[in-house]
Amino acid sequence: MKRRDFLGTNMLALAGGALAAGGANAADGQSDENDRIQSQLSPNVQMQFMRPAQLEAAGRKFPVVYVPFGLIEWHGLHLPLGNDAIKAHGILVKSAEKFGGVVYPPVYFHDGFRQEHLVPVLTDLFNRLKRTGYRVIIGASGHNIRGQIDMINKALEPVTADGNVTGIGIWEITLSRGLESASDHAAKWETSNMMFLYPDLVDMSELGDGPINLDMKPPSGIGGLDPRKHASAEVGRRNVELASEAIGRKAQELLASLPENQRSFNLESVSPGNWWLI
Fold first, then answer.
1. pTM for the whole thing?
2. What pLDDT digit, counting tens, does each position of 114-123 carry?
């Protein structure tokens, strides 16, 4: 399914989100300002920034690893080309901050690559994460096409076959999709995510004040609601909050689905002789 097809099948949800929450008010239970999710991304749950003792402690507390997926792709004139992967990464970091676990760096391989070559590479990655001791592997793609999910799940199959670990491939909004959490292509939702997570990477002036087409076609290459009218950091905050919460709860559910004796970090220690690299 192409991104254009995804937008077509989900346009009702996208439009509904804008009508129900032009500013993304968090209907029931809008939290106090101090309780709201913050845009800063903690380095303490991002694998590339962690020290060995931190990695081991996080694994023993909650043996879950999140792997963000995306690609380098046109996202209008106003958004970064790596939008999908860094969007997914930011949401997963928020999941790990609240629920535990660690986040692998963004993976910029996608279903456009030859799958007979790529899937075994991803299986190798997931097996390495398994050997590192993790019991749950969640691959979340910010590139919302069916092929991405199929790619992740196919790569996970041989890794989870023995029942010692479990995992799932999802879009970042698979579990939270609704009026306040949705996706598009460089329009309301993706622009809002970046306004919240990486405001310095967004330049709305690039879109100008004139008409733009919102049907995914040239010249704009944007699909969804006009980001100049509907996007905001607050919309992005609420989307990230709902998506990260849903993913974190799914991680808890997946860990609990394993036999009781298979729910602990399965590595003696993060140290030479027991572990060296992923």
1. 0.89
2. 999 999 999 9
